[in-house]
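Email to the structure team, subject: Riboflavin biosynthesis protein model.

Hi all, the expression group asked for a predicted structure before they design truncation constructs. Nothing fancy, just the tokens so they can compare against earlier work. One-line instruction: predict Riboflavin biosynthesis protein, return tokens.
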Amino acid sequence: MKVYHLSYPNHLYENENNEPYALAIGFFDGVHAGHQAVIQEALNKGKEQNMKTAVMTFDPHPSLVLGGRKEQIFYITPLEQKIEILKELQVDAVFVVRFTSDFAKLTPSQFIESFIKKANVKHVTAGFDFTFGAFGKGTMEDMEQLSEGKYTVSVVGKQELSGDKISSTRIREELKAGNMEKVKELLGRPFLLSGVVVHGDKRGRTINFPTANIQPTEGQYTPATGVYAVKIRVQEQWYNGVCNVGFKPTFNNPDEKKLSIEVHIVNFDQSIYGEEVIVHWYKRIRSEQKFNGIEALKEQITKDKLVAINYFKQA
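Reply from the structure team: attached below.
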């Protein structure tokens, strides 16, 4: 899979063979089940018309440039992770368009001229609510009307789960609530968080439950505080684990809030500081709580570990 990083007005396409593409277009944060329907439609069109399939996405999030949101943006799938997922979906190319102030000013027709026609796109697929161009004024109807016969268009309708639209916003709400089983349904796969194992306070070792303290990749969304059944990939091997997300109230001053993500890996005893790991999240076992002493904490962690082990036995 080829990845093209494009910016406007410079560094546009270097399509040496000028190959035609069936293109799926959208921001695709999460590459969730709804997004996958759009991408699958493009894959089907590419196969039907003997074309390669490409996905066009944007970076960074438009609101960072347009200033519409004051809070920090956290991605369900940061760009590197998004590209890896698209590779697994077997698309042939990804066009990552740099979202800048100049890019945001393009009219719908200018966008189509620079980013659709010049890329030799012969079919465009997007979701029913996709908009483009300055102020999001371009709709998929405009995409078709402005084609001048150079490409065809298909629109994928609203994808629903339990009667509600599958959306990145809905997934963030479920992550905020810790509903990882629902998140898995919406994504079509477990939620994934990547990071590096760093030194923590090493308190877990003193109570016989050593943990990997994970510094997540910057900009990733972190699920709600609590204890979770997870799987963790270390050095290309997957292990079952119990993850605590929170502020460790049994030990820490409640006024000094520093969020930690710690995974106790079942049947594992290696030093893995500095290793890049991936955590798949499956089920929230309980909320974080303060215990009256270390023995009570150890007893609860033992129970949590058993819940996680049994969960994966039955999964």
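DSSP finds ten helices and 14 strands in the chain. Residues 2-164 form a domain with the Rossmann fold fold (CATH 3.40.50.620). Ping us if the truncation boundaries need rechecking.
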